[in-house]
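Final report, Chapter 2: Outcomes

The project's central promise was a pipeline that accepts a single protein chain and returns its three-dimensional structure in a standardized token representation, suitable for archiving and comparison. That pipeline is now operational. To close this chapter, we reproduce one record exactly as it appears in the project archive, with the input sequence first and the structure output second.
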Amino acid sequence: MSEPIIVALVAVGGVIAGAIITGVLNYYSTQRTKKVDSYKSQLRQAYKDISAFHRLEDRYVTALAKYDRTSEAWKRDIRKQQADDGLLTPSQHATARAAEEKLKQLG
């Protein structure tokens, strides 16, 4: 074969290999983007749920405050009972406001 034909074949092979590599990288990038979007959506929903549970807890303790104790006293006692039973309780920083701020930061 003549040299120009060999050079052309090598160039075509390089172009094809480049196209294949670009296609594969584009495919994996798209898959990762979909996963990230899915995780962000799940995180947004988790922040909404956290906020809703805190608001619900506030309503419960306000309703219980009608009986001989303050809402904060009820909240402390219920959380202490939950911790004594070995169950998880919200941290001091886990508030409806904090969850709503994080939700705003996500956009």
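Archive annotation: The chain is about 80% helix and 0% strand.
This record, like all others produced under the grant, will remain available to the consortium after the project formally closes.
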